[in-house]
Model the fold of this input.
Amino acid sequence: MVEDRLSSLPDELIHKILASFDIKFVVQTCLLSSRWEFLWTSMPYLNFSNFGPLPKFVTNVLSHRNHQVEVSSVELDFHGAASQVFVKYYAFSHNVQQLTVTSWPKNDLANYPSTTLFSSKSLKHFTLTINDCMSAWNLTLRCFSVKVVVEVFDIITPQLSNLTLISSFHLNVINLIAPQLENLTIVNCSIKYLNAPPAGISSLSYRDYRPPMQLSKDPFHSLNKENICLYLLHGLTYEDACKTINMLQ
Done:
């Protein structure tokens, strides 16, 4: 008789093993064993991928979960209203800490429930991936803020050519993964560190009334136009001057 070592593992470890699969596969797998039958109901990691419009399956998963277990990590494909409904009415009522959203150009990002997203008191890591293999495009994030400090904010945009960030608050680190980015504009953003792709950026415009943020350590090899304006309320300190010089490198 073959010993079933997997079933002898604690629930927490089995959850971590199943976390790499989408929730539909997780439910199907758990039904194969009486030991695992209800394990999916206490999964703290939810991966809803490739569902399109909100189907009955997703509704059933959410309604039959063990609601005493918080959702620590959520991964969503942004198709139709599915992820909007999930974020607005479920995810943040369960103190989600990490949210990954994959968006597609045909969807209207303006309708995304940003008020709910940025009022979360538990969110620590937000990743936004926008897929568009057809053409380069522009993105402007204006007046976006959170009530608590988000440790890391990821923007993943493979075809982005122009990015403008205006008036952001309480964001410590922004990881910008945009290999096609050429023009970057940052205005009055409380960002402490911006990790931007140094290879293709040719134009950088930065204006703020706070001490300058820290940019990526790697030099911008393609940069040929740079405009930095600092209007500090209490004057420029020696430390501020050093940070500004570091930006110019």
Q: What stands out?
A: The longest helix spans residues 238-248. Helices lie at 11-18, 23-30, 56-64, 82-89, 114-118, 238-248. The chain has a mean pLDDT of 77. Residues 198 and 219 are 6 Å apart (CA to CA).
